[in-house]
Amino acid sequence: MQQSVWHTAYGDIVYWQQAQAAARETVVLLHGAVMDHALFAAQYQALADTYRVLVWDMPMHGASRPFMPVSMLQMARFIEDIVEHEAMGAVHVVGQSMGGMVAQYWAQVAPQRIKSLSLIDSIPLNPRYRSKLDAWALKTVPFFTKLSFNERAIPKMAAKIASTAAAQAYVVQRFQDVSKDELIHIMRVLVEGINSANEMPLNMPVQAIVGEHDGLGKVKAYNITWHQQERVPLHVINGAGHNANMDDAAAVNALLQAWIDRASYQRG
């Protein structure tokens, strides 16, 4: 992978890419909160044989630290700037959890940029899917993070996020790498990004992927409702948790490959 750095007034963003000489399509991978680009290691390996692939460490995450707290909307603007700088044209986007939310903001910032969206254990940002009680409960997340986050809590958090031992070990590593202050800032950005979202029409092919045992908040419930109300294709990964793309990489990779190929054919 070729590593690059995108300089901003808020901090530096580190990203990686690999381009195949004959690649006609480009895939951008956006990881979730607290994670880093390694979340997509299995997807990067599978997709890079066919496509040009770009993955980043989201601002405030991994190698993209220190970084001033910025909104998900600003993150979307940053990834648009990077993709424009790399002359990538229209791209397919895969977003996991918070990365899927940034992807939806990106679809509003530059709707012609995105050929297709694959959202893994993420949620639709349209506020119609969340009650006032949901919005209030989200606002308490930073407070309870400050109250409860410590070294002893990390294994329990990992077990809630991932179902396989390898994926849980990765989650433990990521949470051990962030300070409590960094985690609180990330949670505030996440909550504000969800609660401040307006209706966000997604005028490109969209599929939702969710782990069978995703028990993080109401992620699974929102996806089921989204599927029922808007007929968004929903794929449930058996045995997987919130980080479904790590828990069962083969199943998720097959879904991504088929979706990208279908969208590429439709768009010509």
How would you summarize what this structure contains?
It comes from Vitreoscilla massiliensis. One of its GO terms (molecular function) is hydrolase activity. With about 270 residues, this protein is of the alpha/beta class.
Mind summarizing the main beta sheet?
8 strands, mixed
Enumerate how many helices there are, as a single number.
11
* Domain unit count: 1
CATH superfamily: Alpha/Beta hydrolase fold, catalytic domain
Q: In percent, how much strand structure appears in the residues? A: 15-25%
Mean pLDDT: 95
Spans of 5+ residues with little confidence (pLDDT < 50)?
Answer: none
Task: Write the CATH fold name.
Answer: Rossmann fold
Give me the CATH architecture, please.
Answer: 3-Layer(aba) Sandwich
Radius of gyration: 17 Å
Query: Class in CATH?
Result: Alpha Beta
Q: What is the first-to-last residue Cα distance?
A: 28 Å
Structural class, from helix and strand content? alpha/beta
